Amino acid sequence: xxxxxxxATGQLGSLVVKHLLDRIPANDIAVSVRSxxxxxxxxxxxxxxRLGDFNDLALMTNAFKGIDTALIISAExxxxxxxxxxxxxxxxxxxxxxxxxxxxxxIDPKADADFTYSAIHLDTENYIRESGLAYTLLRNxxxxxxxxxxxxxALETGDFGAPAGDAKITYIPRNDLAxxxxxxxxxxxxxxxxxxxxxxxxxxxxDEIAGYIANATGKPxxxxxxxxxxxxxxxxxxxxxxxxxxxxxxxxxxxxxxxYETVSSDFETLVGRKPQSVEDFVAKALK
Length: 287
Fold this sequence. Notes:
By secondary structure, this protein is an alpha/beta fold. It has helices at 11-21, 40-44, 57-63, 79-96, 118-131, 151-157, 174-186, 206-217, 228-237, 242-256, 266-271, 278-286, and strands at residues 3-6, 29-33, 48-51, 69-72, 100-106, 134-140, 159-162, 194-198, 222-225. The protein contains twelve helices and nine strands. The strands form two sheets. The protein has a seven-stranded parallel sheet with strand order 3-2-1-4-5-6-8, sandwiched between helices. β1, α1 and β2 form a beta-alpha-beta unit. α9 (228-237) packs antiparallel against α10. The radius of gyration is 19 Å and the shape is globular.
């Protein structure tokens, strides 16, 4: 047993497992999950399913035993809890004898970023480096998949709304990011102490995205630049936690400053092809 994936029943983790199975045998893969019963399909494929929880050092240490390379997929919680959870995961990996940590970070992590979750990733990156373990940092740009949440409303009203202005964001499909992670995990020795900026092929505006939705569905859809307070009010009405609302609001503030428009070729270098464009992703998702 050499490779372990945390959060393997989550949206990203499950895709990483899928792509990794195309590259290495199932009996070389382990997964760490909080609810093993939800991973019965993985166990049926010959994958070693282990109980793990980033809130429990002893449990995670046990989950990491016998593992050479571990993919730590970022948890979901507020900043203070996630920083503590990620540090626990790194400590557990080191205690268990893991040699190489692969971590799903964020593009251009900064302590003072308007996108507040960015600070979590910077702290975790630094903690991993300080651990003395070999590492690979996957700095993921924002999921193109998230854009689909606004599609039902856009098709109903004709308005695709966000407080985005003319900001450009290098969205990339989650599936592509999963394939990049699987590529690293299949041959981890080739990626020791490397950092990859994984972005889309270009920065796209929300006006362009509205056009992609219109073209894919044949229905009139236009971008509406929402005032920030209207946007946060909508998110609050959906019952989203405050830390997520703050992060999403900050994403657009940062994007308007140009924080997330830089394009990297690292994905193509790593995987051997360009990532799927947002236009193609939207077209195929909505057909």
